[in-house]
Amino acid sequence: MTWRKSSYSATEDKCVEVALGPAAKIRDTKDRSGGTLEISTRSWDALLSALCRPATLDLPEV
User: Fold this and answer.
1) Cα–Cα distance, 41 to 22 (Å, whole number)
2) Phi and psi for 29 in degrees, rounded to 5?
3) Taking a C-beta distance cutoff of 8 angstroms, is the pair 6, 27 a contact?
4) pTM > 0.85
């Protein structure tokens, strides 16, 4: 399993890492042995899509 972190992270220990396989595993770089969050790769893809999508606000017209 290969853990990867964002290329935008400027520090070694202030981000999260992800390992992709049959499931996506996510861990905190400050506490790598503290456990992981495991979600389906489908959920991981949905999360990334939502984060990369431009924000839309449903504000009432004035």
Assistant:
1) 7
2) -70, -20
3) no
4) no
